[in-house]
Amino acid sequence: MVEAKLNIDKIRKDFPILNRKVNGRPLVYFDNAATSQTPKQVIDCIVDYYGNYNANIHRGVHSLSQEATDAYEQARLKIKKHFNAQHSHEIIFTSGTTHSINLVANSYGSLLAEGDEVMVSALEHHSNIVPWQMLCERKGLKMKVIPMLENGKLDLHYVHENLTTKTKMVFVNHVSNALGTINPIEEIISAAHKVNAKVLIDGAQAAPHIQADVQALDVDFYTVSAHKICGPTGVGILYGKEELLKQMPPYQGGGEMIAEVSFVKTTYAGLPHKFEAGTPNIAGGIAFGAALDYMHEIGFDAIEAYEQELLEYATQRIKEIEGVIIYGPEPKEKTAVLSFNIEGLHAYDLGTILDQMGIAVRTGHHCAQPIMEYYKIPGTARASFSFYNTKQEIDIFIDALKKAVSMLS
Ligand code: C6P
Q: Would the pTM count as exceeding 0.90?
């Protein structure tokens, strides 16, 4: 059994926060899609950086600066290897997915012209909608929206029927944060490339569960936030194909992104530095590498299989509750996200009562309002599982949910 393979007891000991109580009850943390918890290996890495070699990078000849630079660039290499990028300079450090998408929308977006079209999916997080809307307003572009279906999947007919030579970019998430839907990005990328459109895949929700291979996918841009994959907040990456990143103008100006500066003319550094203005989140970048090491030690295949077991178990158990409505596709077609409502009750009230019992879930629109609009609901309760969760925790959650329902009915 996969559960035994993972050695959950040992894994849970790596996460100090899982020992704490919330409102007098042992913490049951089911808000992993918002941010994952941090293992002590990653916490230790941050403490080690600040305690032993804190210095600015790419700047000093002194030893500390060189140690910090080496560690930061080692992390970039680990990330390159993890996503199977062809070159490490295709990995741009950012503050997270939101920053990565804004970078592409502003930089690659500046190469688009009035009358061009872009295509976005109805399943997106606001981070993959708003920067493009802002671009469309600025440049006079037309935005087409791939509709969603009742089952929480995308209407792929729309993609095939509406991609034209006018379409310059397509943006879709690998996995929906609100529903967990795993989108058929291979098919979308290949269809977009047939009309020469570039594709940005928002990998924020996929990264903790699925190891994406950017070369096999032939994706143009892929974005990730470290904090959803056992790393710290405030750091992430943009993967971009070298040929595209080279064509793109810098997004932000400042230190480190230049070759030479004068008041007559400034020239820019090569990749990846052209897109990394200012002092970055050095400890964060190094810790992102440590988080990937940690996840690989456990193994992405084992993680995915175990989380799938948790999802199937939770889905089956929650159906014991009368009036439960589950949103999104069947467990096999999504990551470990259970988005639900209970007829006649507000998700917010459920979340508040669950919190009183030590259980953390997210409630609301999950920064994906178009999905809520489609279902004509203000929001859902979302329980999202990680490899350090257990079936026993799901039992606690279901019991608590039953109590909450009887209190609110
Ligand atoms: N979703 C959630 O609870 P940042 O904030 O930049 O790290 O990630 C933004 C983001 C972009 N795309 C997707 C698919 C996401 O899920 C998120 C973050 C969190 O669902 C917080 S809103």
A: yes
